[in-house]
From TrEMBL:
This is 4-hydroxy-tetrahydrodipicolinate reductase. InterPro entries: DapB_C, DapB_N, DapB_N_CS, DHDPR_bac, NAD(P)-bd_dom_sf. GO terms for biological process: diaminopimelate biosynthetic process; lysine biosynthetic process via diaminopimelate. SUPFAM superfamilies: Glyceraldehyde-3-phosphate dehydrogenase-like, C-terminal domain, NAD(P)-binding Rossmann-fold domains. Residues 113-247 form the Dihydrodipicolinate reductase C-terminal domain. The keyword Isomerase does not apply. The gene is dapB.
Length: 250
């Protein structure tokens, strides 16, 4: 049995993770850490993998504490920068147990991971590409980590293919064009009734390709979370890994 502790168990995603782990035949809940609990209760003696679903402002400190306590971590909280990732890598280099791992996923939904992959494959064939992400109004970060990851993947594919800069005649500081992420414009919508959705628009003269992924319920993320927990618990992926596509045959 894989012993799983959930950090952020009081949240919507954390509570869903608790239910998914309890329903899995090869896992059991070790610790349920809420905002009022001490994360020091999660140790290598009682936990094989910790799942961290909190808020961007707390995630880095939580992950660094768990590493220091000898625990491998699956992270669903977004808001990771290169600087934060470097701090995680440095902490893992000094981790108390050999083979400790941290896995960070911009998105755990299989549909979103595939959409990201398809967008990167398609980007080199189109003159223009933009990303629209749509979420519920309680989401605290914008643009979403998924959309940022998608934009970076599109930009990397275009650079590798030697694509020209995307045409855009707008001038000056135009806020309505969305945030430019690695040269790709990303637009964030926060609307009551939505859950988690992403559209990638790719255009050439006279044609358009739209790639869209919709997660209507948090249940859509749980197979990806359990897949990540199993892979981290296997000990075959030490160090820092980013992106669920690592564990899929893509």
């Amino acid at each position: 049995m894989i012993r799983v502790s959930v950090v952020g168990a009081q949240g919507r995603m954390g509570a869903s993770v608790v239910q998914a782990v309890e329903a899995a035949q090869d896992m059991q809940i070790a610790q349920k850490i809420t905002e009022n609990d001490d994360i020091a209760a999660v140790t290598a003696d009682n936990t094989d993998v910790a799942v961290e679903f909190t808020v961007p402002s707390a995630a880095l400190d939580n992950v660094l504490k768990l590493i220091a306590q000898g625990v491998s971590v699956v992270v669903g909280t977004t808001g990771w920068t290169d600087e934060k990732l470097d701090r995680v890598k440095a902490a893992l280099a000094d981790a108390p147990h050999q083979g400790q791992a941290v896995f960070i996923a911009p998105n755990f939904a299989i549909s979103a991971v595939l959409a990201d992959k398809f967008a990167a494959e398609a980007a080199k064939y189109f003159t223009s590409a933009e990303v629209i992400e749509l979420h519920h109004p309680n989401k605290v970060d914008a643009p979403s980590g998924t959309a940022i990851h998608t934009a970076h993947a599109i930009a990397a594919a275009r650079r590798e293919a030697g694509c020209a800069q995307m045409p855009d005649a707008t001038q000056g500081e135009v806020a309505s064009r969305g945030q430019s992420v690695d040269g790709v414009h990303v637009h964030a919508v926060r609307l009551q009734g939505l859950n988690a959705h992403e559209e990638v628009l790719l255009g050439n003269a006279g044609e358009q390709l739209v790639i869209r992924a919709d997660s209507f319920d948090r249940a859509s993320f749980m197979p990806g979370v359990l897949l990540a927990v199993r892979n981290v618990a296997s000990g075959e992926h030490p160090g820092l890994t980013v992106g669920l596509d690592t564990f899929l045959d893509l």
